[in-house]
Amino acid sequence: MQSRIRNEQLKEKIMSPMEASKLIKDGMVIGTSGFTPSGYPKVVPLALAERVKRDNEKMKLTLYSGASLGPEVDGAWAEAGILAKRLPYQTNKQLRQDINCGKVEYLDMHLSHSSQYLNYGILPRVDVAIVEAIAITEDGNIIPTSAVGNSPSFIKSADKIIVEISSKQPVELEGMSDIYMLENPPMRTHIPIKTPGDRVGTPFIVCDKDKIAAVVFSDMEDHVRDLAPISDVDRAISKNIINFLEKEVSLGRLTKNLLPLQSGVGNVANAVLAGLCDSTFENLVCYTEVIQDAMLELMQCGKIKKASACSISPSPRGLKSFRENIDFFKDKIILRPLEISNSPEMARKLGVIAMNTAIEVDIYGNVNSTHIMGSKIMNGIGGSGDFARNAYLTIFSTSSIAKGGKISSIVPMVSHVDHTEHDTMIIVTEQGVADLRGLSPKEKARLIIENCVHPDFKEQMRDYFNRACEVCQSCHTPHILEEALSWHANFVETGTMKK
Amino acid sequence: MQSRIRNEQLKEKIMSPMEASKLIKDGMVIGTSGFTPSGYPKVVPLALAERVKRDNEKMKLTLYSGASLGPEVDGAWAEAGILAKRLPYQTNKQLRQDINCGKVEYLDMHLSHSSQYLNYGILPRVDVAIVEAIAITEDGNIIPTSAVGNSPSFIKSADKIIVEISSKQPVELEGMSDIYMLENPPMRTHIPIKTPGDRVGTPFIVCDKDKIAAVVFSDMEDHVRDLAPISDVDRAISKNIINFLEKEVSLGRLTKNLLPLQSGVGNVANAVLAGLCDSTFENLVCYTEVIQDAMLELMQCGKIKKASACSISPSPRGLKSFRENIDFFKDKIILRPLEISNSPEMARKLGVIAMNTAIEVDIYGNVNSTHIMGSKIMNGIGGSGDFARNAYLTIFSTSSIAKGGKISSIVPMVSHVDHTEHDTMIIVTEQGVADLRGLSPKEKARLIIENCVHPDFKEQMRDYFNRACEVCQSCHTPHILEEALSWHANFVETGTMKK
Ligand SMILES: CC(C)(COP(=O)(O)OP(=O)(O)OC[C@H]1O[C@@H](n2cnc3c(N)ncnc32)[C@H](O)[C@@H]1OP(=O)(O)O)[C@@H](O)C(=O)NCCC(=O)NCCS
Ligand SMILES: CC(C)(COP(=O)(O)OP(=O)(O)OC[C@H]1O[C@@H](n2cnc3c(N)ncnc32)[C@H](O)[C@@H]1OP(=O)(O)O)[C@@H](O)C(=O)NCCC(=O)NCCS
After folding, report:
1. How far is CA A368 from each of CA A186, A398, A481, B236, B412, rounded to the nearest angstrom?
2. Which residues cross the membrane (chains A, B) (predicted)?
3. B102 — contact with chain A (CB < 8 Å)?
4. Does A477 touch chain B (CB under 8 A)?
5. What is the pLDDT of residues B355-388, one digit of tens each?
6. Closest by Cα among B174, B179, B172, B187 to B156
7. B289 an active-site residue?
8. Is 0.90 topped by the overall pTM?
9. pLDDT tens digits for range B196-254
10. How many helices (H) and strands (E) does chain A have?
11. Which of B132, B289, B339, B430 is flagged as catalytic?
């Protein structure tokens, strides 16, 4: 493992995770590698949590990352009460609870804003960066593992850097990353990527080696998670999206190789992609955030030629297949910094087809991706806004009902807006598709109600809309303010949105 | 005037406005030049309205434009009942009423989406384009007047083109426009503009001369409007913004020449800019949509070096000064197509400082720019989202109260969301500034309540927020769903938001 530290001097910095954890002091800002349960540091965060609990130490930290992290950070640190502030995204159960009872302040940000805020000097600088690496080069530069995320910005900003050299991450990952950094305005120029497969940077993250304060060895795997089996609802959503895309091809608006695909995270997103395997589309490319199982499978069956992302985050089964075929995947996958993978400039230039999942959608096409009943955070907006706002096509999908049918995921007014009516284009449920492009609010409402709402809620929704039109004499966006959020209030009070 | 038609063949197409108007048939899609009351066609639209009224003709049209238009189109066509559908923006009183009673379907779109939707083949093609011009070149290309707007896309899309040669628009406008067009993905490349003053295109709009079906002469001026005198509230808002920017400079985040400024339309926006005259900032540049009076004055006093926009839209007084000093302004102003002036790529690359006006803002920083009491459209989102979403700094300002103090412009929950909490950064009222960057929702709420809410509503707002925190046990974004929109409902019912 020592051979992974190609700079002799830095071998003197080898220490145990516990020793390295002592670099982290109360009140500090910590920035970690990692994006979804992939490429994040493990042994140092665990050592810190252990020490804090053992010694009953006072320790409150601000934690920056690329996106969510595995349980060895978000879970362990929440459990140990270490977190004061967290950004820009999380998916951890314990941490979510802590955020939703005021223990942790959470900044739910557009992912593309996170490194930018740091580079612009708006967020406090990073005191200590902890990054998982394949190796350190002769010059002290860092080869990332399965995620690039915000590591380049954290390494640039940090006073001190702790490197976790992972023995579990395959050395073949070296060369998969393409690190290109943006200057701040007014020095910023355009991003020279013309197609998703272009390499425009270095295979390592430039690092001032004098800032590397500790090097530790890690034998812990990414804590990847199983995907739920694809349900009938997921399959119906996937089929509806594919039918819609096929119609676009037949109308001459898209060709059979579509445009670069971006796909959100989670079960529905994976199922949608999986459906492409049996489609007539071919020579596809992806410009996305995260590579999940279905994307790997689509490469193996030859449907996808190239995929640009900022992390590889498969299930345990997907990970096994990825590792076994890593040479096959190596020239097809490019991992980029978040600021590049989620760049609005790239999304609009390439004309990305953005496919993300909603918690709820309202009859005018506003989308809530983050809040349960308007108040409690679920995960966060993640990169969905980065892509949705600037994409060629913006597709949001959701099951038409939730919680066994007690909740309609189409509501009169969403209880929180993450994507406005101006940004959303195509709404898909297992019931059908609503293509909102070129429609006025009332036209959108009629289409969403007829095509997307679950039959159990259709009459109730038509009734709301008709009465709203009557009350405001068919004004631009009819609402009955006293009733607009009553479906949610009803659910909270009675356990169902049904009247 | 004939000399303005530099192509001999096209002189044969000269006709009267009334004759030209006959090219317009029931059910057609019409695309016009113009952006705010500037650069729009006048004599043909008026002739059409007259004819329809006189002959009681059946005529329902879809109207595309760059942004709002003068009363000779939006007003006259609404009055004559000609409009079935309108996009992407309007500010006309009669038309607003027609939209808010269901007579006209209105698509309130991000301006940067409008030409894109047309170019992508999503919106129906233009049957007839009507464009105001300074001249037609030897090759049949068109020299725009005081606005470029969406004219290039409409001219490209249209079956037939009517050109209104204006005798009132000064010939010196020739050379001010810089027409650069985007390809559709996947052929799209980056926009080669590096600084706001760069010229990268042609001074004319490329036009297939065989599509020019009529040339008419017009002696009508742009129907520019007076600005309201700057009020104490406007002045306080302006001062607060300038103080904030000065603090950013002192923190080293900005230099004294700031970053390219974008400024919204209307009285508040103009007042904010006017305040810059006495500031210490210098060598400013603008990358914006519309050039109003204050921007012209800032050029004259040497504060602003260059301004890129897609129209010049001063008051009558400002127009006079512009005309008298047109040679002075000529090399300082560049007029671009909307797709370029409002490009998200440009806003993020240049690091624009976006300053726009809100109708209302909520305690979590969500902004409503478009709807009165959640249902009735005011104007539309315009370009505010194009800039706000991708800017270096996103500033929204509003008076803290409206309608003589009966309305608090800061509310528990906005009744419509145009800019989400993820997009907004700085909220300014005459009361003060709330810098929301890097804050969690509860931190944002406390700051907005203390710094921006009017004293008359502060206690009521604190009370809402405190009870919301209690009810949901300090969850991520505390709300009481039954009460969140009750301030609006109260106003509608009782004429005041005061409890
Ligand atoms: C929206 C999102 C939560 C959906 O995730 P998913 O795994 O596909 O969806 P699920 O149907 O399993 O729903 C997740 C949970 O939300 C609940 N839920 C779904 N719809 C709901 C609704 N309308 N009201 C209340 N709860 C709802 C589900 O019941 C489930 O709750 P549980 O965990 O208690 O069982 C997820 O996609 C997300 O966090 N998106 C935002 C970030 C993003 O888009 N990232 C990608 C950008 S590249
Ligand atoms: C928001 C906007 C309407 C403000 O315009 P303005 O002229 O600066 O502001 P005013 O204070 O005069 O308000 C306009 C009207 O809204 C009303 N209003 C303002 N705040 C209100 C509130 N909170 N609730 C209800 N009505 C309100 C005013 O009373 C006034 O009504 P009136 O015409 O009946 O007197 C205008 O900036 C706009 O349309 N913005 C959206 C588009 C945009 O941002 N374009 C620029 C992008 S580059």
Report:
1. 34, 11, 18, 35, 18
2. none
3. yes
4. yes
5. 999 999 999 999 999 999 999 999 999 999 999 9
6. B179
7. yes
8. yes
9. 999 999 999 999 999 999 999 999 999 998 988 999 999 999 999 999 999 999 999 99
10. 17, 25
11. B289
